[in-house]
Amino acid sequence: MLEQLNRAVEHIEGRLDERIEAAGLARIAMTSEYHFRRMFSALAGMPLSEYIRRRRLTLAGAEVLAGERTLLDVAVRYGYASGEAFARAFRAMHGIGPGEARRTGAALRSQPRMSFRLVVEGSSSMRYRIVAKEEFRVVGKKARVPLVHEGVNPAIADFIRGIDQETVRRIAELSDQEPEGIVSVSDNLAEGRAEGTELDYYHAVVTGAAVPGDLDALVVPAGTWAVFENSGPFPQALQFLWRDVFTQWFPSNSYRSRPGPEILRTRLSPDVGEAEAELWIPVERAMS
Q1: Tell me, what's the pLDDT at 151?
Q2: How far apart are CA 248 and CA 117, in angstroms?
Q3: Cβ(9)–Cβ(115) under 8 Å?
Q4: CA 276 to CA 5: how far, in whole Å?
């Protein structure tokens, strides 16, 4: 998988002054566009579109300083419809406008070209299993919250505190299949999963039961799931689990992610310092 990703990056490099389609990059990487975007974002630490934008502005910066083309010519070459749009994007990355940068020979920022490799530390193994599930429902309470990569998510914590215990009890009683009990469900996330972008969060159960009128529900089609287990300090171990799934497990296994909610079953220690977690990720067999 990493070899194919690097081929896609090579393709990007040769076409930074042309239109670049994510679907075409996914074909080079021999995977789906959905999985390609997810993998790239997890490994690069930024969305695909942001990486391409920053690489273009890096090359554009060099041409601005070289002075061989007009600023408008540079803008058009790298896909900007006007000098004003180019100037805004240039300033956002480099902290200075292109005209001033050319006049003063200012130092500009650079986005290095990326290459991907798998680092095998050998200090731990990832416990997982593959599960096929029929259609089910996620039933509980839903909120739209910002994404937080590290530490406790205050919006989620406030949302859960606001659910009365009687409602939590009624939700828990609807659980009738794996993963059992109250779970955290993340759905409808932004493409690049950048910090602060929003997602649908459910404090809910997985069930086949009828949905009470005062609860929110999400119908999940039948499909295959990769189920990962780990334990450790809360919430760091859970957040690292998500990272490791995409940076270590997927590049080493014959599966790819597919659209669908991600389900986390967590059991906390009495002092809330430790957690045991089970993370369900929707997957499908990768193309051979």
Answers
A1: 73
A2: 10
A3: yes
A4: 33
